[in-house]
Amino acid sequence: xxxxxxxxxxxxxxxxxxxxxxxxxxxxxxxxxxxxxxxxxxxxxxxxxxxxxxxxxxxxxxxxxxxxxxxxxxxxxxxxxxxxxxxxxxxxxxxxxxxxxxxxxxxxxxxxxxxxxxxxxxxxxxxxxxxxxxxxxxxxxxxxxxxxxxxxxxxxxxxxxxxxxxxxxxxxxxxxxxxxxxxxxxxxxxxxxxxxxxxxxxxxxxxxxxxxxxxxxxxxxxxxxxxxxxxxxxxxxxxxxxxxxxxxxxxxxxxxxxxxxxxxxxxxxxxxxxxxxxxxxxxxxxxxxxxxxxxxxxxxxxxxxxxxxxxxxxxxxxxxxxxxxxxxxxxxxxxxxxxxxxxxxxxxxxxxxxxxxxxxxxxxxxxxxxxxxxxxxxxxxxxxxxxxxxxxxxxxxxxxxxxxxxxxxxxx
Amino acid sequence: xxxxxxxxxxxxxxxxxxxxxxxxxxxxxxxxxxxxxxxxxxxxxxxxxxxxxxxxxxxxxxxxxxxxxxxxxxxxxxxxxxxxxxxxxxxxxxxxxxxxxxxxxxxxxxxxxxxxxxxxxxxxxxxxxxxxxxxxxxxxxxxxxxxxxxxxxxxxxxxxxxxxxxxxxxxxxxxxxxxxxxxxxxxxxxxxxxxxxxxxxxxxxxxxxxxxxxxxxxxxxxxxxxxxxxxxxxxxxxxxxxxxxxxxxxxxxxxxxxxxxxxxxxxxxxxxxxxxxxxxxxxxxxxxxxxxxxxxxxxxxxxxxxxxxxxxxxxxxxxxxxxxxxxxxxxxxxxxxxxxxxxxxxxxxxxxxxxxxxxxxxxxxxxxxxxxxxxxxxxxxxxxxxxxxxxxxxxxxxxxxxxxxxxxxxxx
Lengths: 412, 412
Hints:
Two copies of one chain form a homodimer. Chain A has about 400 residues and is an alpha+beta fold.
């Protein structure tokens, strides 16, 4: 894409209301725009990152046999009354002109359970794994963390339906592995920890995926003896003793919850009377699991981790483009060489943002390039062309190198 | 995809509340599920069609330089008050716990206008074309037409920003052409007509794209003299006389509005004080256009047009799969041949739904295949294998033919 065509522009000021690093950087670089507290628009560059994250998650969900659906955001009161969750204080509620009550979905167990029930009669129909990407809504009173805590936010939610506990346990482990793959592909592998969390009535523990960062709103406790990560709620219940080994030497770290997985058991199948016939013809309740990842939160977390004083440093797989090609000085020679390289790279299926603007200085272009944070910068100038070269620099490194212009794509 | 893995199943009953053909067929075949009146879930097959339509629209929007964004669904009252549209009766409204007023977006002029304003100062920044796919909400009291009229529904909305009327007029024609391409790719070319509609304060007329079908809720009038299509509102204003040629011989047809394009002029730039500096340094108001297509409505319209007594007949580009491969009789020989063909077709990037189910009769499989409506059916059986063949039948044709098994993919 030619940068001269991009309708967004870099902003020099940082809005005073935005105290979070992720919102400051993403707004300044033109990835997102704030409509109001906790509600953001995704602009072209931001939507590209969002779609990359979505596709990574989709691939890993499909790899564990997930089937994608799209459930509504507007949900009827009756479904929530069945499970006693109509009273949930953070649910946004509304009425239509005829006085019918609705809520905006903040989770979809109440919808997916009766839906899947329509297609299941026997153990032969199980297991079933269904996921979606959908906007969720939560009446969040303290939405001050940019993309980390939204009133409107996109979630991937996966629901699994099983004939028994063993089958759920087995799939739960598969989802765990898929989640680690997702966080690895998003560049968060080394800083993301499987963390014990409260499990509700059915399982002793559920699990959160917590990403360590100083700006996190959560706290995780690491047991120095058995290396377990435990969330704050559990550690307080257990009176600051590791529930696994009894160790008391705990290290506290700030973190962001980037995912959670939960054994629901019969919590939702019972109120919806969702049963199946087993091999012996006996009716049994369905056993369920649910598994969530917030897409905007994940994007915000990546920015919280990957930035420096100059801007964002996108991990490769989620970057809006692979290469930021910059032409400096607008002589015909430079322009032609840059245009040609731009076309060649595109033909090689390399995604390029091409800074073809003529009204910006080299300094401005470099500063904006660092702020946007595409992994590889390629500069074409009179000086580099004298040696038939371009200058190649990784965003994450300080040094640049000269590369022969006809060897650029193979060097990437 | 193996049909044995698909969690949805064909339903034999038609729900009595569903009076529309599109909802009846799509629900029976497992494409969608009704949550409540006007609110549907997209199931795996339905979401595949939905995504194909979305991608066709995306490609054609990108071809006319559209830049994709994603605006929120939850919108603040203040923006609507600026344009006097907070009183719109079909807008769903809600309050959070702090008493702040929101609406659910049914259109996004009030959001995109101040957003784009942030990036535009001079004529050099224009024109700008921005589009999104987003859920819209409308407090629809008579939502009885399946996907044709929803309370929650997905829209593609494109907004264009221009320095003058001529520039808008030129782009408006480009969008017209892009819309015809979209409807053509969706199989609706011959039955979709550009129709004169009411233009509001700024332009004399806007345009609707109306698809002729007996089940349509709209009416269009064709002037037999000049072949113009005119919507009901205009024709009543004009007292049943063609506004173009004065002709009085009009033919009435039932239709569905599948798209609309509208010259907004200064209707939204003025309330948001959205100005730009022209070449002479003078401040002028921005001239805008907007252009909508409802994705679910388009999907429902396709089904209304393309069906017979046996089920749906998907046009090629929007079908969930290209081929429905059916193995009948579950001998090892048939199974192995079908499996092999399934793999070969997938390697050739042909999308296949493979009916590998062993608990269904040939008759049941054929009936379900006709209901689902994939363009090409391929049957593997003992009988066809005797001649090293498979039986190939188009959903839209009555006759089948035998094709050598190693010539199948080239014949498609």
